[in-house]
From TrEMBL:
Chief place of localization: membrane
Topology relative to the membrane: Peripheral membrane protein
Protein name: ATP-binding cassette domain-containing protein
Taxonomic source organism: Nocardioides malaquae
Protein keywords: Antibiotic resistance, ATP-binding, Cell membrane, Membrane, Nucleotide-binding, Translocase, Transport
Length: 330
């Protein structure tokens, strides 16, 4: 049983979603649920089925089979309810570059049937929230890529939807703009918005997502928190870097009092050993405390999400599949 329209704790739900384009199966039995006020990262390379999944969830593409609900509304039987409850930011900014930032927001507000006074208030609030107040009266074609993405996100929030779908929201942004947008998204979640985020950036999923669904070739191959996925792909490692290469031998002996398996990388002056958790870090720190060995670093290193993807698929995330037709690709 799904949640009733407009109630319950599940904001986004997919059950055995399938989408076929002729002989091509773009999405093959994808299932997940996203609790209200959380962020789910849909992670996978180009061609994995991420965008097609989002298009089904947002009523842009009808599922071949399966169930999809947003805020309790079924995408098949109540698409209008879905659209009233969600916002969507696609892979490229969809704002009109010949209008100003204010005009873009006001245009969408009028399409929603909001009064002029309400639209003006919302435009001012959104421009301030997304650090675009000074640029609000400028035409969008003068905006940087990061400013356009922030305006695109602002436009999607005109009707204050409780659910927001973000399809590759930081694609093409420089690192600084990406971090700035992450901060904006964290603010939205703090205010109660539920986010579904598709991304190829492993760091982005690690930074933002409460839960991650890894999708590859149209199917879900793993799901869990970032930490759960990392732990499932391999053990954490205790990493010690000594300041002087001549101390490597003694450092290895000391580290073996914590772990019997120690790997020494002489050029990097680094030693690594399997670790069970932070307790091993504490034990290693105590072992080195009175040793007279100067350390550059001592800490716990967990597998990265890139390691997770390699473990799950046999290839790294940057080894993308070829991009297919837009309707089929992700």
């Amino acid at each position: 049983m799904g949640v009733a329209a407009g109630s319950g704790e599940v904001a986004i739900e997919a059950v055995d979603l399938v989408k076929r384009f002729g002989e091509t199966v773009a999405v093959d039995g994808v299932s997940f649920s996203v609790p209200r006020g959380t962020v789910m990262g849909l992670l996978g390379p180009n061609g994995a089925g991420k965008t097609t999944t989002v298009r089904m969830m947002t009523t842009l593409t009808r599922p071949t089979s399966g169930i999809a609900r947003v805020a309790g509304y079924d995408v098949r039987t109540d698409p209008d309810g879905v659209r009233r409850s969600m916002g969507l930011t696609g892979q490229s900014a969809t704002v009109d570059e010949l209008l100003t930032g204010v005009e873009n927001i006001e245009l969408v507000g009028r399409l929603y049937g909001l009064s002029s006074a309400t639209v003006r208030r919302i435009a001012g609030d959104l421009l301030e929230r997304f650090s675009l107040t000074d640029a609000g009266r400028r035409v969008v074609k003068t905006y940087s890529g990061g400013m356009r993405r922030r305006l695109d996100l602002a436009v999607s929030l005109v009707a204050t939807p409780p659910v927001l779908f973000l399809d590759e929201p930081t694609t093409g942004l420089d690192p600084r703009s990406r971090v700035e947008l992450w901060d904006v998204l964290r603010g939205l979640v703090t205010d109660g918005t539920t986010l579904l985020l598709t991304t190829q950036y492993l760091e982005e999923a690690d930074q933002l997502a409460d839960d991650i669904v890894v999708i590859d070739r149209g199917t879900v191959i793993a799901q869990g928190t970032p930490l759960q996925l990392k732990d499932a792909s391999g053990r954490a490692a205790l990493v010690v870097t000594v300041s002087r290469a001549e101390d490597l031998g003694r450092a290895e002996q000391l580290l073996r009092t914590v772990s019997s398996e120690v790997h020494v990388e002489t050029p990097a002056r680094r030693l690594t050993a399997p670790a069970q958790g932070l307790g091993d870090v504490t034990a290693a720190a105590a072992a080195f405390a009175d040793s007279g060995i100067d350390l550059d670093d001592l800490g716990l290193q967990r597998p990265s999400l890139d390691d997770v993807f390699l473990h799950l698929t046999g290839r790294r995330a940057e080894d993308d599949l070829p991009v297919e037709d837009e309707e089929v690709s992700a």
